[in-house]
Amino acid sequence: MSLLVTGSIGIDTVETPYGKRDDVIGGSAIYFAYAASFFTPVRLVGAVGEDCPEKIFSVFDGREVDTLGLERRKGSKTFRWHGSYVKDMNEAMTVEVDLNVLAERAPKIPDTYLDSRYVFLANTHPALQQQMLGALRQPKLVVADTMNLWITNEKNELLKLLKKIDGLVLNDGEARLLTGQKNLILAAREVLKMGPKFVVIKKGEHGCMLCTAQDTFVLPAFPADAVIDPTGAGDSFAGGMMGYLSTQGNTSPSTIKRALAFGTVVASYTIADFSLGGLQGTSREQIDERWNEFKQAMSF
Amino acid sequence: MSLLVTGSIGIDTVETPYGKRDDVIGGSAIYFAYAASFFTPVRLVGAVGEDCPEKIFSVFDGREVDTLGLERRKGSKTFRWHGSYVKDMNEAMTVEVDLNVLAERAPKIPDTYLDSRYVFLANTHPALQQQMLGALRQPKLVVADTMNLWITNEKNELLKLLKKIDGLVLNDGEARLLTGQKNLILAAREVLKMGPKFVVIKKGEHGCMLCTAQDTFVLPAFPADAVIDPTGAGDSFAGGMMGYLSTQGNTSPSTIKRALAFGTVVASYTIADFSLGGLQGTSREQIDERWNEFKQAMSF
């Protein structure tokens, strides 16, 4: 079924122990859309500035990503992020960030997207997330991501958003910050009280955890011996998860589990190269193969 | 089949955010033996000093733990450890440690133990570990634990030990220290080059990883919402793992996986109370039930 993502589109400069890449394509919506497009057609909503290189518009050539909702805004500049994983591969240190177009009004959702059933509100200001969600006619499953910045500075707006979504995806540090709970299971339960029916806590190299009112499900990361650039791992995870979910038509516990495993596997490709390189180098067949390997490895 | 453990027996003082316990029973061999005794009879080898309270000798009453190898040494003092998890539940801060009897000669292995087939050399000086291993007639499966202290100060002896054992169990920080590899899979592969046929890396709340020449298997921790005292979790994990393995007669990948899951489950009881409280409050039936629940939760 129709999957819509809205989030950031950016130009990244990334440093890891394996090198540096200047002005490569990045942003939460980009990673999400690429990852989800292994499973289903994706509708992309986001804005870039006038300065944005043409190549951003061709990155989805040959893939089922509808870029009608990709707005090139005159007089604006593209979101830019410069991050470093040189000291710690598990946590990006932001060297510089220019919100630019992200600090402006929300991008417009094309009319033909308004019937989207599956929606992922990638990380951006929670007021913008609500605004975009409000425009959609009858979404069936809405999942959002967030970050420290909004938890700290825009908690009221975030709490309003949480009452309107089905699932929240966030990392361990963010879950602790949002709830004040150090233990992640207790933190997840607190998040559930805030509104979502499920919460997925991403733990980087340590995998992820899903909590619903009934269930707690933990999954390790796919064992990776070559982590080149973790940028976009969380968004690719969400893309794999939502991409798979949108093809299933249900969110039973076992469907969500399988979706998390697909997210895990897709993210394992993302981190194996800089920018989109890892995702560009794989295929649905390879993803399915690794998923089966992962499933096998997890069963005992 | 016969399972022998040798390691420390101690009097602990432990502080966690949930309180403080003075002079409680602890030590690697104690936790291991208690945990393993849910699966199989255990032969315990270790030494305490004259000062040791009588209650240490009764802690295994009613359990299949043979304490013939528990030596009460005249003129010596019992190993004592005072640790705090107040700042970080994932890593103990040692407030004070008195090796006492542990710094003396190795305890004597009773003659009736010399035919032991399954052996766990819990954490102690690697020269003592070799000495005790050398006394055994024909062990079938030998697994050892170690720690930072020996990796840093007694690396040569440790490397000699690694050539003589089948499996090594250690935590993530120790694996990185031993090999100089930050990535845990690469670290595990380096350990395999040092001799063992398998290595288990314990990652605390993030579970564990098994590496052999053929396989990498990762397992999350059992999701625990109440961690009261992490002391002994690693030793209980090893006890559950070896206890189960010794009843199986083979070390096929699927047997080892199941054993790791039993180790994980047993450790989840240990951390739910201070000292041996968590283990004393459970039963083999409860362990089996939680193991099935864990297995179910892991399959997708």
Task: Please characterize this protein's 3D structure.
Two copies of one chain form a homodimer. By secondary structure, the first copy, chain A, is of the alpha/beta class. Chain A has eleven helices and 13 strands. Chain A has a nine-stranded mixed sheet, sandwiched between helices.
> How is the quaternary structure best described?
homodimer
Strand content of chain A is 25-35%
Q: Whole-number average pLDDT of chain A?
A: 94
Which residues of chain A form runs of ≥5 with pLDDT under 50? Answer: none
Write a concise synopsis of the structure shown.
The structure is a homodimer of 300-residue chains. Chain A is of the alpha/beta class and 300 residues long.
List the helices and strands and how they pair.
2 copies of one chain form a homodimer.
Chain A: E1 3-6, E2 10-16, E3 19-26, H1 28-36, E4 42-49, H2 55-58, E5 65-73, E6 79-84, E7 93-98, E8 118-121, H3 126-135, E9 141-145, H4 148-153, H5 155-162, E10 167-171, H6 172-179, H7 184-193, E11 198-202, E12 208-212, E13 216-219, H8 233-246, H9 253-270, H10 277-280, H11 284-298
Parallel strand pairs in A: 1-4, 1-8, 2-6, 4-5, 8-9, 9-10, 10-11
Antiparallel strand pairs in A: 2-3, 6-7, 11-12, 12-13
